[in-house]
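Q: Predict the assembly, please.
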Amino acid sequence: MDNGYKDIMDNDGYVILKNALPQKMVDSYNTMIGNYFGLGKARGESRWKPDAFNNAALFELHKLFELKDFTEPLQSLTDNKLMYLHHGDIHLNFTAINLHDDCQERGTDTSNYSWQEDHPLNREPYRCYTIAMYLQDHDDDTGLSVMKGSHKLSYTGMTRENMHKLEIPITNLNTKMGDVVIFDCRLLHKGNKDGRGDRKAIYFRMGQKNIHSENHIIGAVTRQQQENNQPINAYKIHPEFQAVLEKNSILY
Ligand SMILES: O=C(O)CCC(=O)C(=O)O
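A: Predicted assembly structure:
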């Protein structure tokens, strides 16, 4: 199954899988995230939980990896070498409103390595993707916005001011609940404010097993362990999560 996803990804830096999540799953994740953060009290407040897939209270998330409408396009984008990149957050009213990329370089030796397009030290296809699942409709510019094609730019170290001077229009992805956005981690993107007070999302990363994914994992684990106040070398994938990935032919 290809459906031209590779061409779209190459050109735009993102793909939207319309209606990939069944409504039942959307509803149950809405409830799960609401319960986890205590939505009654936390309405309107910003909360997020890093490394959610290894948290027993959130194992319902593992069902995502059994969903062929979601994994097959990703297998096709990654030449059937799909890998979990050890990054998975759930969000309640978490909004990253400034343009940014999701490349992870913390703790990575970048002396002989680059993820930038056409850079001489970029020797393998860059196929690290952020998966964004918003659990409500965003037909009113309150979801995710992207700078189409910016995954091909060399903007390392670029100031925010200069990012906005790029003269690339910002596209609002007016997604519906059940849609899944897959975007190249190098793509400049931002979230938007939502006055409803219960904006929920699942954010995680997957990629093709190669040097970029391996480096991405180092940075992602470093960040998550720091955010969870845990030593970096104490990170472990939970055996139940590992079993789900293996059963669905996903590397980790
Ligand atoms: O606010 C949002 O929904 C975007 C979140 C985001 O860009 C991120 O977590 O990297």
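The first strand starts at residue 14 and ends at 17. Residues 112 and 121 are 6 Å apart (CA to CA).
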